[in-house]
Amino acid sequence: MTRFWVLKILRTVLTLWFVVTFAFVVLRTSGDPVVALVGADATPEEVEQFRQLWRLDDPLWIQYFRYVIQMATGQFGISYRDGREVIDIIIERVPWTLILGLFSYIGAILIGVPAGIVAAIKRGSTFDNLIMATAVFGFALPNFFLGILMILLFSLSLQWLPSSGTGTVWHLIMPAITLATFTAGTLARFTRSAMLEVLDKLYIRAAAAKGVGYWKRIIFHALPNASIPLVTIIGLNIGELIGGAIVVETVFAWPGVGRLLVTAVSSRDLAVVQGLVLIMAVTMVLANLVVDLLYGLLDPRIRVQN
What we know:
CATH class of the largest domain: Mainly Alpha
Strand content: under 5%
Number of strands: 0
Number of helices: 14
Largest sheet: none
CATH superfamily of the largest domain: MetI-like
Number of domains: 2
Structural class: mainly alpha
CATH architecture of the largest domain: Orthogonal Bundle
Helix content: over 70%
CATH topology of the largest domain: MetI-like fold
GO molecular function: dipeptide transmembrane transporter activity
Membrane topology: Multi-pass membrane protein
Oligomer: single chain
Family: Belongs to the binding-protein-dependent transport system permease family.
Organism: Neorhizobium galegae bv. orientalis str. HAMBI 540
Order of helices and strands: HHHHHHHHHHHHHH
Distance between the termini: 8 Å
Subcellular location: Cell membrane
Radius of gyration: 24 Å
């Protein structure tokens, strides 16, 4: 039992270290940030002064160890562009991303899971085919394309909803639907597969033979045993939501961390990019860790095998 938890936490720490190192290497090898920050018209003296100011003239290995120590202690540094603490800049944007992610994820679960259950119960029927066709369509449709289509239809043509920004609940509807579509389609497909596998088990037939009601068999016997693959997909799709939020927030000018990341990358603000990459990595890794731990709680055999 203890070994199971220790191994999972150790893998989490190693994964975060790899992500931090990878981000450092990629950002340092993708071009000189100083040129992008000071502008092409800056003199060599101004460029050198900027390097010394932000300690970018140190050897890479020194910058790396300073960077790792800062990330490990939660000190994300100062933005090269506006001179503010990176953590303050990120904290300003986090609530907006949480609002968008929470509403879209709850909507995706409330739509995708019941749709998958109904499709499994009605397998082979026209209703099943319709649900799966809709799920595949939602799964395959790119976020940016769906977002643009919704803006053209509901903002420009019908003028029902605002096309961008924040301020009212109406601003949230299109970004949340756009972000939830992919996840809802994925959940519907996997819920159907998991339920079909469980519904064919002998204990479901035994429950029916004992006189257990149909919906009671579905809710209390089939659904709990189909929950392990669903927990996996729900956990992994948290990462998909973070990645999708970058596109959706840009399309709808939503002031979250996704849009901040795009702005920071385009302006080569390394401190902000590094802080955002670490926070996103921590979110996805912790989601996977929670999934692993839930595995051990839902199925004791997994703890024994590990």
